[in-house]
Amino acid sequence: MAEQINREYLEQFGNLEVLAKQIVEGFITGLHKSPFHGFSVEFSEHRLYNSGESTKHVDWKLYARTEKLFTKKYEEETNLRCQFVLDASSSMYFQQEDNWSKLKYSIYGIAALMELLKRQRDAVGLSVFTDELDLHTENKSSNIHHRYIYAELEKLLHQYDAKEVKTTEAVQVLHDIAELCKRRSLIVVFSDMLNDPENKDKLFEALQHLKHNKHEVILFHVVDKKKELDFQFENRPYTLVDMETGEQMKLVPGEVKDHYTKQVAEYFKELEQKCGAYGIDFHELDTNQPLNELLVQFLAKRGKMR
Length: 306
Known about the structure:
The chain is α/β, with parallel strands linked by helices. The chain contains nine helices and ten strands. The chain has a six-stranded mixed sheet with strand order 5-4-3-6-7-10, with helices on both faces. The protein starts with 6 loop residues before the first helix and ends with a helix.
């Protein structure tokens, strides 16, 4: 049975703001007035009237029934459009000992950032992919939409099942998302980026495509650094199993560690450098580290980039 997202854990992020480096669909609430307020006629929900603001959008019919002032909030009454992109392929279920899986780590990261964006009245959307684009929602800021995204994320909070493996095909998916996001947005990708090294040039092209339509892109590389990068295993025989294909390999870590760590380090270093060249903000999320500490560091850095 899928577990529920711990909302109390998210509350510790309540005093922080996600600050975008570029203007994507307006400005931060309370700092700047969005040029899109009132631009749309698509009603979203009511909110309490704040003393001193314009009465243009006060719902007088609701006032007659409740004797309280509410204003109509429209879908374009938003500062930022953020599309979260989540890799849900089977390799994301990798975890060791008491650590969270990479997928659970990513889901909690998305949920925390969603809470921040919600409090700023920013619009969010969710894209989930494996070997294809499994889910893609529009950007909305309504409570109903947030609950829908939480429900979709919670469906993924289950244990790894070798009978239902999903491979990764990030290249075409990233191209698809770049085309589907028509309006300028902040695109935030959570992925272990474990793709076929032979197709790395195509992957880099797909990442570059995400900058299409002047999107700002953040890539969170989610990884178990001890195991996946540093190959910290006892020097005894192991049988390693590919979580996406089921392929098995018998080895002794000490015999391959130097070669493995060198090749992996070179691949992800090139990925980080390509992101820098494309103007993509690259961050490593190590599942061995507390998520809240990494997000606080990330948000503090974003604040300095304003």
